[in-house]
Amino acid sequence: MSHLLRSFAPIPSGSWELIDTEAKERLGAALGARKLVDFAGPLGWEHSATNLGRTRPVSSAPVEGVTAAARRVLPLVELRAAFSVSRDELRDGERGAVDVDLDSLDEAAHRVAVAENIAVFRGWEQAGIVGIAQATPHAAIEREPTIDRFPRRVARAVEVLRTAGIDGPYAVALSPDEYTAVIETTEHGGYPLFDHLRKILGGPIVWAPGIEGSVVVSQRGGDFLFESGQDLAIGYDHHDADSVHLYFEESFSFRVATPEAAVVLS
Fold first, then answer.
1. Tens-digit pLDDT profile for residues 138-148
2. Is there a contact between 247 and 235 (Cβ–Cβ < 8 Å)?
3. What angle do CA 264, 153, 210 make, to 5 degrees?
4. How far apart are the C-alpha atoms of 118 and 54, rounded to whole Å?
5. Which residue in 38, 45, 188, 262 could disulfide with 136, CB within 3.0 to 4.6 Å?
């Protein structure tokens, strides 16, 4: 039996399809971090830790003349975001309604995506995760007074990476405000800023809610490692006469293998 207990929810198969489709659409847009890192898995709900390939000394062994070392691992962290759906709305959906109210689902999807983005880019000390922006040894590239100078900052970041021996292609993760500014801006002569950035980077420009400023990262592979146990899925908690109470859940670890492969644009 799956730990998500979906079979116990009073939700017909057609309504589950509606819920899952809505969830995929909302999560697909907001999960910016995992678009830029190496994703391994899902390895299953029972997968509990990432092997770091390192040990720590054990001060003593049960027998004299024997030495010991303990393997070091990074525990996976579990995220859960609760939401509810109206049973009346689900019934209307079964009747063919195309405007079923799933606002609570949308809000929960955004929350869990932002939490994942923050863990990857900004870190999560309590979970033992060091974020990309925390790990990089490169000095942050300071903000310019106008957005049309943004390509110069990105080009400087790419040059820093190349000088450090980090190959491309490269990508940039943008906060929502900066992403909006980029897509709305044209440079002198009417050339879209978005297209200019793509030529500099050779890789994607990603909307990443939860990030602060922007981060330019290499896309060569092997630098940023996201390990998924349970990938994001919807589970059943309980229900009452009016609503079915569900949740998003995932388990993952994240680690930076090459801190030099990122530059922060403050």
1. 999 988 777 77
2. yes
3. 40
4. 26
5. 262
CA distance 13 to 99: 18
Cβ atoms of 116 and 76 within 8 Å: the answer is: no
Q: Which amino acid is at 98?
A: V
| Beta bridge partner(s), residue 50 | 74
DSSP for residue 6: G
pLDDT digit string (tens) for 100-158? 899 999 999 999 999 999 999 999 999 999 999 999 999 999 887 777 788 889 999 99
**Packing angle, helices 150-163 and 176-184, rounded to 10:** 110
| Distance (Å) of CA 13 to CA 1, 22, 89, 204 | 18, 14, 15, 36
Q: Are 182 and 205 in contact (CB under 8 A)?
A: yes
- Beta strands 205-207; 170-174: pairing state: parallel
Q: Which residue has the tokens 């060091």?
A: 130
